[in-house]
Each structure stands twice: as C-alpha cells, then as structure tokens.
Amino acid sequence: MKYFPIIPRGWTATATFFILDDTITEDVFLYHMQQAGMLIGLGSFRVRNNGVMGRFKVVDMAWEDKEMEDLLNANKAA
Predict the structure, then answer these.
(1) Which residues pair with 46 in a beta bridge?
(2) Is there a contact between 38 and 55 (Cβ–Cβ < 8 Å)?
(3) How far apart are CA 1 and CA 13, in angstroms?
(4) Does the global pTM surpass 0.70?
C-alpha cells in the first residue's frame, strides 16, 4: 500500500530554474510554468497521471540574466 503526504492548501514553495537556451524568454517560461501548473501538476497523483492533486499556481517570478560562467562559479562557491 502506498501512502502519500497531505500538503495543506495555502502551502507555498520557492524554486530556482536555470534556463540555458537563449530562445526561451521570460514570457515564454512564465506561460509554460502556468500551463504546467494547471494541466500537468507535480507529484505521483498529479493531473497528468489521472490524479486530482498536484496543481500549482505561479504567484511571483523573478528573472535574472546570468552568464554560464557566473552560474558555474556560484556553484563552486556553495
């Protein structure tokens, strides 16, 4: 038998994404994240797997343009 944690409504999370393709603009990324939240979801019982959970909503997004070298140096420092 599988057990799944209950995540209460109102729960929030912060995520960081590294976009390495210059053709993906801020507007394109935001659009796809919003669509994923409504149509695909997160977790095993997400919408895409015929579940009813896992939907999410993007409430805020910060976009930073950084070069790959900056990202690699930041990773080494951590």
Answers:
(1) 53
(2) yes
(3) 28
(4) yes
Angle, alpha carbons 59-13-8 (nearest 5°): 100
Dihedral, 44, 45, 49, 50 alpha carbons, nearest 10: 170
Distance from first CA to last CA of the chain, Å, rounded? Answer: 39
**Which pLDDT tens digit goes with each residue over 25-42?**
999 999 999 999 999 988
Count of alpha carbons within 13 Å of 24, Cβ hemisphere only? 13
Rounded CA separation 24/8 (Å): 33
Specify the residue for token string 């993007």: 58
Which DSSP letter does residue 11 get? -
Q: Write the pLDDT tens digit of every residue in 8-23.
A: 888 888 998 988 888 9
Tell me the CB-side half-sphere exposure of residue 36, using CA atoms within 13 A.
9
